[in-house]
Design a protein that fits this description.
5-stranded mixed sheet; 3 domains; Nucleotidyltransferase, domain 5; 401 residues; alpha/beta; Arc Repressor Mutant, subunit A
């Protein structure tokens, strides 16, 4: 079992908040779990655990499970506690991933499990109407998917440069959004509901840290390959933002052996080589699909088109070569790669791993390169995590406790 980190020596309200976060994280990792076991795992005193469990039950984040009591006949029976994920009344978080071809909606419980999913294709929507249409579809989805449970808020993830502190889409060239106060727009349209936004690469990295493999909590690099190509770095459970929240722009990372021409004027940039846009255009040029759509290429490969399969393997090797550079510079415990074809077919993940291991000077273990824990649900789960992560870090502050 993975023990929860011992709480730092703080005082007053700071200690109470830190203790609550430690208890909540321990319940996430090990629940259903008895209070005595929480104390053993976390290093907190039994009295502190009892106080924090009382607070978390009062806030509706944790529930007691008396039906699971196992009494040894000695002493007071221990009533296990778990996150409040009951189907009828457990709190939920909404999520929206705003991509270039479409938006994806999700509803998550406190364990990051996807309870409902929806989508809005962006085809035919004028750029000036996009945010309005997304908001309307999101309202409808939340009303239909959540008929009565407490909605904690909504997380929104998108590509490009996003400043989560300001709630602003600083730059998303593909959507034509610059300095857009997206969080405020969504919150206003959702009747004042709490809304948090972040870059999708950072959101997926945080989802891995919160709900994924234990190694992600030590260190990880996440590489997102879609219409936008970007990355995120997490160290000791914290995703790096950088000044102005500008960290993670790897669109122009050089890919060895690539000659793809980039709009920046150089050749061999990662986004120009491996993005969905680049793959779609190459597929049309080669006569594989009629329209520049990377998802059509994936479908064609799944149907047995060898040309489509060859193109996706080329992309996977380019992603693997970029992964090798990230491994050598940062040497994380885990590299998480979000790329559509490798989510559907593990053969493409093996291509990524092979190219990375061939070129990396520090990594000889292909198992350090993985797909996201949520699989095909990665985008809505990551979006909802933007809302859930602050709750797990400061549960009392999140509810004014």
């Amino acid at each position: 079992m993975t023990a929860a980190p011992h709480v730092a020596r703080t005082t007053g309200d700071g200690r109470r908040e830190a203790n609550a976060a430690t208890v909540l994280r321990t319940v996430l990792d090990h629940g259903p779990v008895a209070r005595r076991t929480i104390a053993e795992l976390s290093g907190l005193s039994p009295a502190a655990v009892s106080r924090q469990c009382t607070d978390l039950v009062r806030l509706g984040l944790v529930r007691e499970l008396p039906e699971l009591v196992e009494s040894s006949g000695v002493g007071r029976p221990q009533i296990p506690v778990d996150l409040h994920t009951g189907a009828a009344e457990g709190p939920v978080a909404g999520g929206v991933h705003i991509g270039v071809p479409g938006s994806t909606f999700g509803l998550l419980d406190l364990r990051g499990r996807l309870l409902a999913r929806g989508a809005l294709p962006h085809d035919g929507i004028a750029p000036g109407d996009l945010s309005h249409r997304i908001l309307g579809a999101l309202r409808t989805f939340l009303a239909d998917a959540n008929p009565g449970r407490r909605l904690l808020g909504v997380g929104a993830a998108l590509g490009g440069w996003v400043d989560p502190g300001l709630g602003t889409a600083v730059r998303h060239d593909a959507l034509g959004w610059h300095q857009r106060p997206l969080a405020a727009e969504l919150a206003r349209g959702l009747g004042g509901l709490e809304v948090r936004i972040d870059n999708h690469a950072r959101a997926i990295a945080q989802s891995e840290i919160l709900f994924g493999r234990p190694a992600a909590r030590r260190s990880l690099v996440h590489l997102f390959v879609g219409n936008v190509v970007d990355a995120a770095l997490g160290i000791a459970g914290v995703v790096h933002q950088g000044p102005g929240s500008g960290a993670g722009d790897v669109a122009h990372l050089p890919v060895p052996d690539s000659t793809a021409v980039c709009p920046c004027g150089r050749s061999g940039c990662l986004e120009a080589t491996a993005s969905n846009t680049a793959v779609g255009l190459t597929a049309v040029r080669r006569g594989i699909v009629p329209d520049p759509d990377a998802f059509l290429v994936v479908d064609a490969a799944a149907a047995g088109d060898r040309r489509a399969d060859r193109l996706l393997r080329e992309r996977a090797r380019a992603v693997g070569r970029a992964t090798a550079l990230l491994l050598d510079v940062l040497n994380p415990d885990l590299v998480v790669v979000t790329e559509h074809s490798s989510l559907l077919n593990p053969d493409y993940l093996e291509e990524i791993r092979g190219a990375a291991i061939d070129l990396s000077h520090v990594c000889r273990d292909p198992e350090r390169i993985v797909s996201p824990h949520a699989g095909m649900a990665v985008l809505p789960v990551a979006a909802g995590t933007i809302l859930l992560n602050p709750l797990f870090k400061s549960p009392l502050a999140a509810f004014g406790g």
